[in-house]
Amino acid sequence: MKKTTKAQLSDMLSDCYAKALADHDIELAAEQIDPVLQLSRHADFQANAAMGLGKRFGIVPRELAAKALEYINAVDAIEQAEVAGPGFINMTLRNSFLSSELLRISKDDRLGAQAVEPKTIVVDYSSPNVAKEMHVGHLRSTVIGDACVCMLEWMGHKVIRRNHIGDWGTPFGMLIEHMYDQGEHASTKALSLGDLNSFYRAAREKFDSDETFQERARNRVVALQAGDEETMRSWNTLVDLSRKYFLDVYEKIDVRLDGTEFRGESTYNDKLQSVVDFLREKNLLETSDAAECMFLDGFKSRDDKPVPLIVQKSDGGFGYAATDLAALRERTEELKADRLLYVVGAPQRQHFEMLFAAGEKIGWLNDSNSAEHVAFGSVLGADGKMLASRSGVTIKLVELLDQAIERAAQTVAQKNPELSDEEQQDIAKAVGIGAVKYADLSVDKVSDYVFDFDKMLALEGNTAPYLQYANARINSVLKDQTVKANQIIELNHEAERELAITLLDFAEVAAEVEASLHFHRLAKYLFDLASAFSRFYSKCPILKAEDENTRNSRLALASLCGTTLQVGLSLLGIRTPKRM
Prior knowledge:
Helices cover 54% and strands 12% of the residues. By secondary structure, the protein is of the alpha/beta class. Helix 18 runs antiparallel to helix 20 (519-539).
C-alpha cells in the first residue's frame, strides 16, 4: 500500500540527507534518518534533520543542510527549497504532486491512512453501578472510551468492548431488603421510572439508622453470595431495571454500548477462588493481617511500608483487586487480547499500576500484549470545583445531556424554522451531544476542564458546532452538484494550497492518535481543517468560479474536505447533520 504523503516526503528527504552525509565520508542508511516534517508559515513543510545529524557527526548543521539541499532540489515532488535559520530546510511542493496526492486519497475510503496490523484490543469503559443513576462523573469515561472504540475499529483492529458494571457486593443486601420493605411491586415501579438515586438514598439512610435493618441487610448479602433463589430473583430485578436505564442513557449520548458488552462484577464470581488458588500455587500470595495479598516492587506508603494488593480479604470475601485480576486473566488468556485499555479516572492510577504489575509478575501480561490506564481528569464548574448543582449535589448525566439538546434546539429552531419538529430535534441532538463530546475530547484527556454550555455550543471557535456547520455549508454547496470522478484538483490560489496540504495531513494525524489516544490532537486538526475551508470558501468562489474547470476542481476540493470532516468527527463519536 502506498505510504502517506508525509511518509513519502520523509523517505525522499532521508535519502537526500544520507547522500549529503556520504559527501562528508559518513555512511548512514536512509532508513536510519528520520527528518521531522512540520508545517511552516514560510513554506509548505519544514525539515530539521540536519540539526541532530550535524551534532551527532560534528558537522555544522547549516553546512549539512546546504549539501542536502543540492539533492532535495532534484526531487520531482519539490518545487523549491531553501536553508533557513541554523539548519532548517523550508520546502514548497509542486502543485502537480499535491494534485496527484489529493486524487489518490479521494479514491481511498481511508483517506490515505495506511492499513495497520490488526490487533485484538479490549476497551473497558463507562462502568456505572447498578441501582445508581449515571452522573457527570461517568461522562469522560463513556465519551473517551467510545472515541477509542471508533478510532481503533476504523484503523482496522478487532475491538472488544467491555462495560464493567458494579452489580455485586454488600450494598445489594440493603437494596434488596429495602425492596421488600417497600413491596417489590412498588419498588419495581419506582425504579422503572428512573428514580434510582432516591431508592438508593432511602436504603442507605435506613441502613445507617436502623440496626435491625443492618442485620437483615448483612444476612441478605450472605444469601445473595450463596445463590439463594428468592434473593437472586430480586437482585436480577435491580440489575435488569438498571441495565434498561443505562441503555437509555447510552442511546441519548450516542455511543457504541448496546448491552452486549455488559460484564458485571458478578460475572467473575465463580472465577475468583480459582485466581486465589492459582496465585497460591505459584507462591505469589502472602498473608498479611489474615488477608491474602500480593506485594509488588516499588509500591510503598508514605511511611515507607509496602502497600499490599489485597486479593482475598480477612473475612474470606473478595474485593476489586480479585475481580480485576479475574477479568485480566480472561482478557489475556481467553480473549487473547494484544492490548488492554482501561478508561478510568486519574485518581485510580495506583490501583491500575499495581494491577498491571501483578499481571506482569503472574505472567498474564508479557511481551506479547500490553495494558494501559487511559486516565483522565475531572469535569469542573465555573468555580473551578467538581461540577455540581447549586445545592452541591452531583449532576445527573441525563439532565446534563437534556440541557445540551434543549439549548441546541433553540438555535436550530431560529436558524431553520421551516424544518419539521422531528428534523429539528434530530439536528438538535446531533449538535447538543456533539458539543458535549467535543468539549471533552478537544482538551488533553489528563487535564481537568471547565464545563461551559455557552462556549461549547458556540458556532465560532474550536467547538463541534463550528465543525458541523462547516460540513453543513459544504453539503449546501454540493447540493444538486456533480463531483466528477477522477477530477484533477488545481491549486492556483494560496487558500486552495493551504486547504490541500491540510487535507493531506489527515492520515498522519489519524495514525498518531491511534497510537497515543490523544484525541485533542485530532480535534485540533479538524478545527484547523474547518478554518482552512472557511478561508478557501471566502476567497475562492466555487459555484461562481471563473470557468467550468475551476468550478469542478473546487467542487472536488470541497467534497474531499467534507468527507474528511465527517470521517474525523465520526472517529470522535460525533454526528454531522446535513443542515444546521
